[in-house]
Request: fold
Amino acid sequence: MNTGQDGALESPGLPPQRLGSLLGHYERVTPPTAVVYRVSCGPHQQTGVVLEVPVEYYRAGRIKPHEATAADRERRLLLFTETTGVERMPVMLAHAPRTALRSLLQEVTAGPPRLQRSFADGSVHTVWVSADPLLSEAVQREASQLESLYIADGHHRMATAVRYAERRRQLGPDHPSAFTMAVLFPSDELRVRGYRRLLRIQPGVSDSEVLTALAALPVTAWLEATTDRFTAPRSVLIGLDNRNYRLWLRGTRGDPRSALDAVLLQERVIPGIADKAVPVPAGREQIDERVLSLEPHPPTIEQIMAVSDANMLLPPKSTWFDPKVRPGLIVRELR
Reply:
């Protein structure tokens, strides 16, 4: 594991062939050490421990996903990893709060940080490294007691690590390829945002026709105009022609997945108005086109963990954890 003051591997545009040569910009961290990563954004902060976790945890169900992955993105990430032999950022895992572990991380963060960087989005990323063997071993021991780890961000990175490890099973369970880099945050420190969808309104369809179609959906309780931009449970915030509306959803019962607003939006609202508006691929919206925005109320971290515990998956982009870890600050060699 390596920490880099200048984030040499941070840029996603660097050719994979060059990335391996940039490891000289990083300071190697050798065990026994405790690496603590804090992300701050305004009054919010979350503090976690960076570890090498066995990929076998994922196969055994100890690391739990909540979203499906796209095969094409997995393939690109695997190619990157195979080419460079480097993990550029940790998988972000959530765990049930553990008082003893939190206290140990406070001991580490009482000292001076190894690096600190600020970014344009307002986030500040700080890393501490403790070489105290007793403290480091205590952190490792407490972290090993966590029964379940939930993927918050990094489903594709986790899936890539599994595929990378499967190709190297013959190297044994102690080889670096049998592990992946992760940062473990307590669930009560994580913040979940709503993930907005953009739909392109079909030519010839008026705003009133779109609103009428939304109001007529079986899942709709009622539709109303609103002047605020805040989401609320069991509702979807709608933006149309510089006006805001709130679509209230009918309550549903059943499994932890089907009751989530993000799932109702993706599986019952958007398909129900497909003749009026169609999803816009990310990054491809045009300035001159008419767009409908739909933002569901975000699920709580407890709801997300319940979905994972039930071995269910949400639609892609159902969750948005903010802030996230940054690429290139801490990297890990796999060879």
